[in-house]
DNA sequence: TCCACGATACTG
DNA sequence: AGTATCGTGGAC
């Protein structure tokens, strides 16, 4: 397997041994920087909304306009992706497949439109609320195991679009209690992505049971 | 493993 | 108008 891409812009190259965010200011700095370190640094952070808190266990990086065909911002600014073109630390929430909401954290400088999709988390607070939002789930590890499931468990929908996640709004992102060491992070191809399937921009906490199952993208066949 | 579900965004 | 989509749950 090829572990790099000629399409990867030089400014996305990962710095080695970056420290984990210790406080809110450090997290803000991390999000304002290149998307790949930001994605890894989001692992272990806490996302709180609707009375539920998850510890983020799986993310995917999207490079925005910088040559990433899988990014919603790849073809430029539209009403849907407008918040991606703003400053880092805001929520890009989108609706897909006719029924699901997914949430991204905008990263990098304004105009770059990079973002990190939050794909899965472990419910660490508000368990009863999360169970009530997802009554069909049998195992607690499945409550937020998948990007749309995560939003469902936290009650995130269109109303969260553009939220400043590091402020005191209805959706809050905070550093985790314990940093996630680089050794504990695994990387692989992004899920459900048609183009650029060769770049390992999906990151997860290795061995964590709340990480979603990998599915190769299969174009839907017309009936 | 496969398919229905289903709304929206973007393209032509 | 047509087509693709950063997915999930349930049926095989």
Automatic annotation (TrEMBL):
Entry keywords, A to Z: DNA damage, DNA repair, Hydrolase
Protein name per UniProt: Putative 3-methyladenine DNA glycosylase
Single GO biological process annotation from the record: base-excision repair
Record family assignment: Belongs to the DNA glycosylase MPG family.
GO MF, one example: DNA binding
Keyword 4Fe-4S annotated: no
InterPro entries associated with the record: Formyl_transferase-like_C_sf, MPG, MPG_sf
